[in-house]
Amino acid sequence: MRWRGERESDNVEDRRGVSISRGMKAGGIGGLGLVALVVVGMFLGVDPSTMLQIVQNVQPPSVSTTDQGVRPAANDDGRKFVAVVLAETEDVWNDAFRNGGGTYQELKLVLFSGAVESECGMTESAVGPFYCPADQKVYLDLAFFGELHSRFGASGDFAQAYVIAHEVGHHVQTLLGITEKVTKLQSRASASDRNRLSVMVELQADCLSGMWAHHAQKSRNILEAGDIEEGLNAASAVGDDRIQKRNQGYVVPDGFTHGTSAQRVNWV
Question: Distance between CA atoms of 227 and 61, rounded to whole angstroms?
Answer without folding.
Answer: 40
